[in-house]
Design brief:
alpha/beta, 2 domains, 8 helices
């Protein structure tokens, strides 16, 4: 079972200890780290340890919480974490709840809370986190895949003309490496987008021409390849 690694950011020691004790009493939670300031939390979110959920206490104040969540979402671990605002009580008005969500929170946990409430809001918030991750990855890969297709066309055309596409293959490898370096979740999304893109890719707008460049020096061949890339960049 997937366990949630959590950060608790609260400037009141007794309050953050209560939340940790509640979280530690259920199997859904893994490592729970207590921090008293947003600065400490930002530092923790830049480390290699995955963080699934960040609890942010109302005691920090809205003027602190808002910039903290924005900055936290720019860190390596914080960009995909779920942010849960721990509010003073369930009697808070709709305006307060709306403000918390606009501040960047994915969910709200009201004091005093039960174990069941803690687990339920954490599950819901991490689901929101997953949807946010998928949306971002789809947008990024949707921009990358057309570049890969275009480079494949360039390689094919340069080879059909009798040249060795050294520079073009290097660019293609670099583009593909960007996909390879992403995690398994991204690979699943990539396969979905790539399959559709390859099936619907238009026929390249060039005609294959086979020429014999056997007597040309490698330096000249490289120049010819680069010129062909420039000529084709707006046509493929």
């Amino acid at each position: 079972m997937k366990k949630f690694n959590a950060l608790i950011v609260d400037n009141d020691m007794a309050s953050r200890m209560r939340l940790k004790q509640t979280a530690s009493s259920v199997v859904e939670f893994g490592a729970v780290t207590l921090l008293s300031t947003p600065a400490e939390a930002i530092s923790a979110l830049t480390l290699s340890t995955p963080i699934d959920v960040v609890f942010v206490s109302w005691r920090l104040g809205p003027d602190v919480i808002r910039p903290f969540i924005q900055k936290a979402k720019e860190t390596s671990q914080g960009q995909d974490a779920a942010y849960i605002s721990v509010m003073k009580s369930a009697s808070e008005g709709n305006a307060s709840v709306a403000q918390v969500m606009m501040d960047g929170a994915d969910g709200i946990l009201c004091e005093p809370f039960s174990v069941d409430q803690l687990v339920e809001i954490t599950r819901l918030s991490t689901k929101v986190r997953g949807e946010r991750y998928e949306s971002r990855e789809r947008a990024a890969l949707s921009l990358l895949i057309p570049d890969i297709l275009k480079q494949l066309d360039l390689v094919a055309h340069i080879k059909s003309s009798g040249l060795a596409p050294e520079t073009s293959l290097k660019v293609l490898r670099e583009l593909c490496q960007r996909v390879k370096d992403r995690d398994e979740r991204s690979h699943v999304i990539y396969y979905q987008i790539a399959l559709n893109a390859f099936e619907n890719a238009p026929v390249p707008h060039f005609e294959a021409k086979t020429k014999n460049y056997g007597g040309v020096s490698s330096r000249v061949k490289k120049r010819m390849e680069q010129k062909m890339q420039r000529d084709l960049s707006g046509k493929v």
